[in-house]
Amino acid sequence: MFAEPRKITTNQVAPHEDLLSVVQKYKKSDNLKPIAQHTKAAFDQTIDWLADWQGEVILDACCGVGESTLHLASMHADKRIIGIDKSALRLNKNQHYEKGFVDSSSNTQNNHLILQADLEDFWRLLADYLPQAKWNVVSQYLLYPNPYPKKSQLQKRWHASASFKSMISCGKKWEVRSNWRLYLEEFQLALQAYNIQSDIHEITTSPITPFERKYLGGGQKCWQLVTR
Ligand SMILES: C[S@@+](CC[C@H](N)C(=O)[O-])C[C@H]1O[C@@H](n2cnc3c(N)ncnc32)[C@H](O)[C@@H]1O
What we know:
The protein is α/β, with parallel strands linked by helices. 37% of the residues lie in helices and 18% in strands. The chain has a seven-stranded mixed sheet with strand order 3-2-1-4-5-7-6, with helices on both faces.
């Protein structure tokens, strides 16, 4: 028997009252934190991998085991897909998923790269590099980010963090999924502070990540935010 997936427990009933002031604060400031060496190395590996690529790139942020990266790779054979997660433990399970995909799908090969890196730094490096890139980031996926549902954890959520400005500099097309609708409502408000509009829908399609499978399988609703 499988354990029921944990439901979101939160002391917030509406978007955080400090959300917009926090988003504006980070929009006006530069993040000067030093870049970790291991993420710089992973970023250099990405640039080498893209080499002379002149087409479209999709970023799968917080990809976990990389199942969604493989899914995106099979859907977009004409694009390059980069999956990034900071957890070696999760990424190490990728081979298992990769094998399943290789067996069941014909066209995921060679168009994706899965890397261990801290996205806080990776997004800053990417934002600085993009003006000279021959390729173009056409969309970014952020599927089931850690929700940090306590009110006091607001600034741990991506949209209320110092990273949001560089995340947006890397591309304005987003798909974000969560089993906590309020997370997406806040993300939507944060995007509006950058003049980006989006819609939120319930997910009714088959799961594309382990977390999505766990939530949907446990009877929870999952939601997706998609920019217009
Ligand atoms: C709840 S899991 C979701 C994983 C996957 N997207 C899924 O749906 O199965 C959130 C993931 O975000 C990753 N993560 C959190 N903060 C990160 C950061 N700063 N840089 C890279 N990955 C991060 C974690 O390691 C974890 O794998």
